[in-house]
Amino acid sequence: MITDTKTVKAAIIGLGRLGSRHARHLVEKIQGVDLIAACALDEDQLQWAHDDLGIESTYKDYKEMIKKEDIDTIFIVAPTPFHPEMTIYAMNAGLNVFCEKPLGLDFKEVDEMAKVIKQHPNQIFQSGFMRRYDESYQYAKKIVDEGGIGDVIYMRGYGIDPISGMESFTKFATEADSGGIFVDMNIHDVDLLRWISGQEPVQVYGLTSNLAAPQLEDIGESETGVAQIKMDGGVIATLIGGRHAAHGNQVELEIMGSNGWLRVGEHPDLNRVTVFNENGVTRPSLQSFGERFDTAFTDEVQDFINNISKGTQPEVTVDDGIKALKIAKACQKSADTGELVEINL
Asked: Would you say 105 and 84 are in contact if contact means Cβ atoms under 8 Å apart?
């Protein structure tokens, strides 16, 4: 539990692409927290944490770190299959836990994880659905909630990584199970469908292909995934996940209403600059999800730290994480079997 009401003592597990971003935010941007320890298997990552962020205590064994360090909370940004066991160990050790999405890949392990979390109601647990903290999505939800576009009829979520990340993803997916394209790429879109529409998915039909990256077949991955979802209140939704956007990072949400439309991120502009040169008239594009959601990542972690200090649970619960995982896995099951899949939440 917290020993200092002013400063939350934290440690982090995982210093990869997202973990390093969280670590830097915790050191440089987040108020009321002191990141005192880090755990990773990669020696270069640990050296970076020590040299660049000034973290004195580094470990390769997360259990050893939790046992030795005087901490109040842990940030879990390790590969997805390890999330349940790490969360269970940390919660049983009396720590508050921030766990990146998805919660896990195996439902039995995730159910046990949820059971342990609920056994510790005085500890704060938060899953990393940072898009709920993004100002654009919050504004879109406000318009929907106020009836600004009438009744929601249809929603479409894009999550397409830049082609420049293909080599990095292939290496990652060769070494660890990504969960498939819908879990890995569209779980945020799934959460937004539920959050903004206020409805729950009941049926899904999914398709995948590797036309743009046939080499992914060898590691059991898909380059493109498309899922049609029927919601319990009548809303129809489409999810599109991919890894081959030539222009940059395409993260987009469309909400079609009976009296208007909303589009969030229709054009992935890096800034408001328009370039006029020999290539024509162009707008620089965002090249990573980190650039697009940097402020949202900061705001969600700051909210987590604030909740720890106040002893309040976050809006995003473990049940939200479980539902998003079930929906995303149902999309993948449909794509794998070629059948319509019923979703029972």
From this structure: no
Residue pLDDT, tens place only, 33-84 = 999 999 999 999 999 999 999 999 999 999 999 999 999 999 999 999 999 9
One of 3.40.50.1100, 3.30.565.10, 3.30.360.10, 3.30.70.330 is the CATH number of 132-292+324-342, namely 3.30.360.10
Start-end of H helices in 186-293: 187-197, 289-292
Residue-wise burial string across 215-230, b where 16 or more C-beta atoms lie within 10 A, e elsewhere: ebeeeebbbbbbbbbb
Q: What is the pLDDT of residue 3?
A: 41
Q: Compute how many other C-beta atoms are within 10 angstroms of the C-beta atom of residue 243.
A: 26
Buried b (16+ CB within 10 A) or exposed e, 190-212: bbbbbbbbebbbeebbbebebee
| Eight-class DSSP state of 21 | H
* Residue 311 CB-half CA count within 13 A: 5
Q: Bigger pLDDT: 168 or 229? A: 229
